[in-house]
């Protein structure tokens, strides 16, 4: 089953990935035949994700399994248990051991790797469930294992009810479907709270459902009821998936219009249950503020994306569609109406190991939206904004409009390059560029900021060192401090429409040379042409990241943690003294040292994450629709096996 690393992000404009319109593997708006579980999910879910097994992902899944096996064999789990047990009294250890044995027995009662190895679907909707949400997870696993796995899940629920007396387990039938349901015990029932976690099974399909109404509907669909309409048959869902390539591995829909349309009703129902007394003017004001906030956010229609595997590359394609007529609403403009990059490679040297172009957000627009909303819609909001502005002026000396919004454009470019001089503190150089509205004003503001920082260090020994930088553009300065010079010597200045910060003058010069057409761009990089996504026109975002050392870099970070943990006792030895407090401190230090020793065991495990090569993405926005494509490229399987074999062979003397 696909278990990729791009599932869900915090906000739709950064979440969803898009692609050119194309359909393959079935008629437009229909899922390929390997996606079956959507027929058991009601169509009023605002979020729906579905994953299906794909023979092209077998090698990728094997690599993840290899890492998981290494983690199991490392003994880290056993060491963590030993560390926790060492902090308990003898009596508590005995009780904890009984609990651990029971938990282990229950976990082993479910074949987790077979539970959803063929197909998995997850859906969420607003409803009568605890907290106002209902969740549905459907799993299709290895044939013949569902009955045993459903029994294992039921055993876990029964153990929860045994240990937590506020719960009970009820076994009954829904539409002919056997159900095991974890509920609040009768004495804990409240009219405004519904808690029902159900496990249902039909043939090789298991459903885990939170919410009584959701359980009834899923059970009915499993056993042939035609109502309610399902996600698989939903015209809205079919319209959405027709905008992206037909999935091979996964498909995901976020129906933001449905979510925000339902939300006020759920809040109203919750208020009736939790606060049924006569509404007060203040409560009405809060309700009005909430409704206004929902109205501001209600501009996205839906976001949809699909995943396919081609060879040893996984592509994600998606669309974020704005609601018709709401493309120019304040929040939509702040998030989406960003100046595109007409030439994505204008500042990216051919030797770059990675880059990112990002529209970010319109800070001025976003700030105005927030302050206007608070001033106009929130009780006592006008006074709160006045106090905030006064605090900024008095304590920070900042006027956002004068000192930031007047020159900040916001679009960003970041570039990673091999370091000119590799040191233990730095393996690569980097450059960050921020678009400005007025380069002269940006230069003046930057000079004022540097002068302000210099003033903070004035009279100190050693002090801040600010000097001209060897950048082939006027006004750049290198800023450092003698105590930090080994690690960081940032260079900063303004060139053209960009505020530029780099780790070295040489790195900035390389970027400026590309813009001046004195050096080749990333387009001439063979690896980027092979593994990246090359835009053929303006884009609102694009990126390329070298992930070939991903596991090694993680292992290096873990090694650093282990080294620091080993040094703690040495630094603390002469400063603890004697007495009860010192004894407690020594105990804490001992625990930290043991914990870092355990963490250091992750190093060899993380080094087995040696199968990634790169990640890339690009996105366009036409004023109504954001389309994005991303790709994760894995190393060639044959090359990976060859390297591993070479590493495992005994080295000659």
Topology overview:
Elements: H1 12-15, E1 47-52, H2 58-73, H3 76-86, H4 90-108, H5 112-115, E2 119-126, E3 133-140, H6 146-163, E4 167-174, E5 177-184, E6 196-202, E7 205-210, H7 212-222, H8 235-241, E8 250-254, H9 256-274, H10 281-297, E9 300-310, E10 313-322, H11 330-336, E11 354-358, H12 363-377, H13 381-396, H14 400-405, E12 408-423, E13 426-436, H15 439-457, E14 465-468, E15 477-480, E16 491-495, E17 498-502, H16 505-515, H17 526-531, E18 541-546, H18 550-572, H19 580-600, H20 602-606, E19 612-621, E20 625-634, H21 637-648
Antiparallel strand pairs: 1-2, 1-8, 2-3, 3-7, 4-5, 5-6, 6-7, 8-9, 9-10, 10-20, 11-12, 11-18, 12-13, 13-17, 14-15, 15-16, 16-17, 18-19, 19-20
Helix pairs in contact: 3-19, 4-6, 11-12, 12-13, 18-19
Features:
single chain, alpha+beta, 21 helices, 41% helix
Q: What can you see in these coordinates?
A:
The protein has 653 residues and is an alpha+beta fold. It has 21 helices and 20 strands. It has a 20-stranded antiparallel sheet, sandwiched between helices. A hairpin with a 2-residue loop joins strand 12 and strand 13 (426-436). Helix 18 (550-572) packs antiparallel against helix 19 (580-600). The chain is globular and about 80 Å long. Mean pLDDT is 86; it is low at 1-27.
């Amino acid at each position: 089953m696909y278990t990729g690393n791009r599932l869900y992000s915090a906000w739709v404009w950064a979440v969803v990935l898009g692609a050119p319109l194309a359909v393959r593997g079935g008629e437009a708006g229909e899922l390929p035949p390997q996606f079956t579980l959507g027929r058991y999910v009601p169509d009023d879910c605002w979020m729906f994700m579905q994953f299906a097994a794909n023979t092209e992902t077998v090698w990728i899944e094997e690599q993840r399994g290899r890492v998981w096996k290494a983690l199991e064999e490392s003994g880290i789990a056993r060491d963590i248990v030993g560390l926790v047990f060492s902090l308990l009294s003898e009596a508590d250890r005995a009780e904890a051991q009984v609990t651990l044995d029971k938990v282990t027995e229950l976990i082993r009662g479910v074949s987790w790797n077979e539970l959803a190895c063929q197909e998995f679907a997850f859906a969420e909707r607003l409803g009568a469930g605890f907290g106002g949400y209902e969740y549905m997870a459907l799993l299709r696993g290895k044939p013949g294992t569902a009955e045993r796995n459903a029994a294992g899940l039921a055993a876990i629920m029964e153990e929860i009810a045994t240990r937590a007396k506020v719960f009970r387990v009820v076994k009954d039938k829904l539409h002919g479907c056997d159900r095991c349901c974890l509920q609040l015990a009768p004495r804990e029932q409240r009219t405004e709270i519904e808690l029902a976690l159900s496990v249902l099974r039909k043939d090789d399909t298991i459903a885990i459902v939170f919410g009584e109404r959701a359980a009834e509907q899923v059970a009915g669909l499993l056993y042939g009821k035609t109502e309610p309409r399902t996600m698989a048959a939903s015209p809205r869902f079919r319209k959405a998936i027709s905008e992206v390539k037909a999935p091979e591995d996964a498909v995901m829909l976020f129906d933001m219009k449905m979510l925000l349309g339902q939300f006020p009703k759920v809040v109203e129902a919750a208020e009736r249950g939790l606060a049924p007394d006569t509404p007060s003017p203040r409560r009405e004001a809060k309700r009005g503020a909430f409704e206004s906030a929902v109205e501001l956010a209600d501009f996205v229609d839906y976001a949809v994306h699909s995943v396919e595997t081609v060879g040893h590359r996984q592509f994600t394609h998606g669309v974020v569609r704005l609601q018709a007529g709401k493309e120019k609403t304040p929040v939509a403009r702040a998030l989406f109406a960003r100046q595109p990059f007409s030439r994505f490679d204008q500042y990216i040297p051919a030797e770059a190991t990675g880059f990112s172009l990002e529209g970010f957000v319109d800070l001025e627009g976003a700030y105005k939206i927030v302050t206007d909303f608070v001033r106009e819609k929130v009780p006592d909001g006008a006074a709160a904004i006045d106090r905030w502005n006064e605090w900024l002026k008095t304590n920070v000396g900042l006027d956002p409009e004068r000192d930031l919004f007047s020159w900040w454009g916001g679009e960003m470019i970041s570039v990673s390059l091999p370091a000119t001089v590799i040191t233990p503190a730095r393996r690569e150089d980097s450059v960050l560029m921020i678009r400005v509205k007025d380069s002269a004003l940006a230069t003046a503001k930057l000079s004022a900021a540097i002068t302000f920082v210099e003033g903070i260090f004035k009279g100190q020994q050693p002090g801040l060192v600010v000097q001209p930088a060897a950048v082939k553009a006027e006004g750049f300065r290198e800023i450092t401090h003698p105590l930090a010079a080994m690690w960081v010597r940032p260079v900063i200045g303004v060139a053209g429409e960009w505020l530029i910060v780099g780790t070295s003058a040489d790195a900035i010069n390389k970027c400026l040379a590309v813009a001046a057409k004195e050096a080749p761009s990333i387009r001439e990089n063979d690896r980027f042409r092979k593994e990246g996504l090359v835009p053929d026109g303006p884009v609102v975002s694009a990126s390329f990241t070298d992930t070939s050392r991903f596991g090694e870099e993680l292992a290096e970070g873990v090694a650093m943690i282990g080294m620091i943990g080993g040094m703690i006792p040495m630094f603390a030895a002469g400063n603890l003294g004697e007495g009860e407090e010192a004894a407690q401190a020594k105990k804490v230090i001992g625990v930290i040292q043991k914990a870092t020793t355990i963490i250091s065991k992750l190093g060899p495990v993380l080094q087995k994450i040696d199968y990634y090569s790169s990640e890339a993405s690009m996105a366009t926005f036409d004023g109504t629709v954001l389309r994005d494509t991303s790709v994760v490229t894995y190393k060639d399987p044959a090359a990976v096996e060859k390297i591993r074999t070479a590493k495992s062979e005994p080295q000659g003397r």
